[in-house]
Amino acid sequence: MHAREKKNEKNRDLRCAFLLQIQGVTDITYRLIDDREKMSKKVFDNYLEEYYRLTEYSNSLLLDHSKTYGGIKYMLYYGKNRREVLIKR
Questions:
Q1: % of the chain with per-residue pLDDT over 90
Q2: 9: which DSSP letter?
Q3: CB atoms closer than 10 angstroms to residue 8
Q4: Could you give the CA distance from residue 25 to residue 27 in angstroms, rounded to a whole number?
């Protein structure tokens, strides 16, 4: 019973970290779309910076998760063209 609850807690914790990233990216993207009329390079760069900071925070949660529960160390990172977010094990 205890092992099953710990496994469920581990999965719930991991899911929360990924959901935070998904919801955050969705929110930033909707705001970016709303601001497209007044989009300048500086404004666009600010949105990119928000994506990067969110990803750094999500990675810190994933690192804490791996320290707490052990096992696979997940990390979100941007691919070579920095437009694709990948999950690395």
A1: 49
A2: H
A3: 10
A4: 5
Residue type at 26?
T
Query: What CA–CA distance (Å, rounded) separates 61 from 18?
Result: 9
Task: Tell the burial category of 53 from Cβ atoms under 10 Å away from its Cβ (0-12, 13-18, 19+).
Answer: exposed
Cα torsion angle, 50, 52, 55, 59, sign: negative
pLDDT tens, position by position, 42-78: 888 999 899 999 999 999 999 999 999 888 888 887 7
Q: Are 13 and 65 in contact (CB under 8 A)?
A: yes
Q: How many helices (H) and strands (E) does the chain have?
A: 2, 2
